[in-house]
Every structure is written in structure tokens, then in C-alpha cells.
Amino acid sequence: MEPHEPDLTAVPVTSVLAALADDVRLQIVRALAEGGESACGSFDFGVSKATRSHHLKVLREAGLTRTRAAGTSRLVRLRRDELDKLYPGLLDAVLTQRPPA
Amino acid sequence: MEPHEPDLTAVPVTSVLAALADDVRLQIVRALAEGGESACGSFDFGVSKATRSHHLKVLREAGLTRTRAAGTSRLVRLRRDELDKLYPGLLDAVLTQRPPA
DNA sequence: ACCCTTGTTCGACAATCATCGAACAACACC
DNA sequence: GGTGTTGTTCGATGATTGTCGAACAAGGGT
């Protein structure tokens, strides 16, 4: 089963935005931006592993992440370079945690 | 009927992204960015006026646009300054039409 | 007053989506 | 080989969403 990691230029902008327009997925992206490559299991945001797997699939198919197998785990990382090149400012704008004020 | 134009800082990022993650709404935002303040009716993107009204409502309630009455029309404009201040780079990243290559 | 134009609101409907438990697959380790 | 860990996949389900036509409201003309 190929991991379905599309060319970012082939992904419609709306798909990239839709992938980011979910709270759980945004938390995953933030964790990846801070912690670098991480195992799927490290994202514990109060959803079942089935749901988490679903969200990681959405992120991957939107071109936001890459996944590689490592033993029994799977390591996920942000495609930050490509994203910053194609959508400069997008990740920065979205990643920075905003103060409640 | 108040037009429900929220303080941008009170709108969750996911709502802003979700508002932009639709093809029709993105076309509206692009048209507004290019043409400035425009009447609702000027956005003819192949949907009924009911649907168009719905999309404009989503944009307004996500804090992306402001609307004011002008005779029988309603003029809509992008809240670009506020958006650029709160999410620098977001609009630019999303607005630029990308070549199919 | 009448009509036309411009938008909004109201169901309704189909499609998509987030979520879950259970079943399955792959790998490691003993 | 068996057991445990880590993820994925498969329905199912409830919620959200995009879409429409029809009805309604507000203004501007004539």
C-alpha cells in the first residue's frame, strides 16, 4: 500500500486549508513543528487510535506530512520546506499560538 | 439584524481556515482582494443566490469580511489589514494563483 | 401604489466528515 | 510459535456542510 504522498503542487489549496482546519490535526501539526519527526502514537489528543490514524492520513494526503516505517512504529514529519516554498507564511501564520487577548 | 462581524482575535484559527477551505469562498476572497469592495451580486460563480448568501455569511462570521448596506445592495470588503496583522502571510499565501506546473 | 432588483432566511436533501469499536496486519521480542 | 505493541482498515453512526427552490424583506424607480 503506497503511502499516498502527493506532489504538493498537485494538491488544491482548499485541500491544504481543509487539512489544517481541524483542531486535532492542527495540534498534530504544531507538535510536529516543535518536536520534529515523531511516531504516530506520540500524538495523544483525546481521540482513539482509529481517529488519529484517520487524521494522519488526511494530513499525508494533503501533502503536509511524510511517513516512513520504523520497526513497528511509523515516523511522521512535516514537509515544512516544501510548504514554506509553495505557501510562504502559511505555516507560520497558523502555527503560532495566539494569546487569548 | 446585526451582521455578526466578530472580533478576529475571538475567532478560532480553524474557523478562519475552514472559511477559506472552499472553492467558491476562495474565489470570492480572491475577487475581493483584486476588486476591493463589491456588491454581493458581483460574485457569480455558478451557484444560486441562496448559496452565495450562505458563503458570504460564513466569510463574515469567520471575521474575513465586513458588510454594509448600500441602497438595495450590500457591499462586502475584505478585512485585509486585520488579517495581515493577526495572520501575516496567510492571505498572501492563499491568494496567489498557482501555475498548474 | 406597483413592480423590479437585491439579498436573506427557511426547510429539505445529499454528501462529506469526525468519531468509535472491532478486526486485521506487521513487526519485535522472548 | 506465541505474545504484545503499533497502526491501519472496515463498517456504522451522528453531526456538519454545500446546495437548491421558494418565500420573505427592504429599497428604488416609474
UniProtKB/TrEMBL annotation, chains A, B:
Membrane spanning stretches: none
Q: Which UniProt keywords apply?
A: DNA-binding, Transcription, Transcription regulation
Q: Does the keyword Transcription regulation apply?
A: yes
Q: Which residues form the HTH arsR-type domain?
A: 5-98
Please give the PROSITE patterns that the UniProt record associates with this protein: HTH_ARSR_2
Q: Which InterPro entries match?
A: ArsR-like_HTH, HTH_ArsR_DNA-bd_dom, HTH_MetalResp_TranReg, WH-like_DNA-bd_sf, WH_DNA-bd_sf
Write down the SUPFAM superfamilies for this protein, in alphabetical order. Winged helix' DNA-binding domain
CDD domains attached here?
A: HTH_ARSR
The protein's matches in Pfam families, at most eight in alphabetical order, are given as:
HTH_5
| Protein's recorded name | Metalloregulator ArsR/SmtB family transcription factor
Give the classification, highest ranks.
Bacteria, Bacillati, Actinomycetota, Actinomycetes, Micromonosporales
